[in-house]
Amino acid sequence: MKNKMVNHEMVLMLEERRKKLEHKTFDWAAWKKGTLLVLKNIFGEKNHYYKQLNDLEYEYNSWSLRDNSGSNDSIKTSCSDLIDICIIDVKGSKYNNVTIEELSLDSIISKFLPEKIISKIKLILSEDTTQYVKEEKLTELLKSIDRVVADKLLAAVLTANYKWL
Prior knowledge:
This protein is an all-alpha fold. Helices cover 75% and strands 0% of the residues. It has ten helices and no strands. Helix 1 (2-21) packs antiparallel against helix 5, helix 2 packs across helix 7 and helix 7 runs antiparallel to helix 10. The chain is elongated, with a radius of gyration of 19 Å.
């Protein structure tokens, strides 16, 4: 039940990104940045959807404008197709049997912690030391986080991973 709710929210975010492609005041850089954030939160940065959009470039030169005049913009069409595929993927069985922890723990952490803290966490976790030392260092680092943010982060992690009960 929880996965379906999360899947529904993911689909809504993706559909919103697709709608923004058709806005009269479409801004490629802003749309790409926002959509990359959505794809990162849903699939992660290592996912091929994220990488495909990240590598996509949009030319604003006069030749591309002239070539596209009177026809659909091929970049927008490609982006719309990518979003459609992402929606199908989210709705499909690939994510129905995945635990929410596997699906979005990175996105939960990214939502509440700044990149600077996440980088420090990754550094601590990659150290060649004991589990105890890592936990102590992480505890000290997490003390620097606002208490409200820390509480919300913990609540999000616990509710996303309710199956551990």
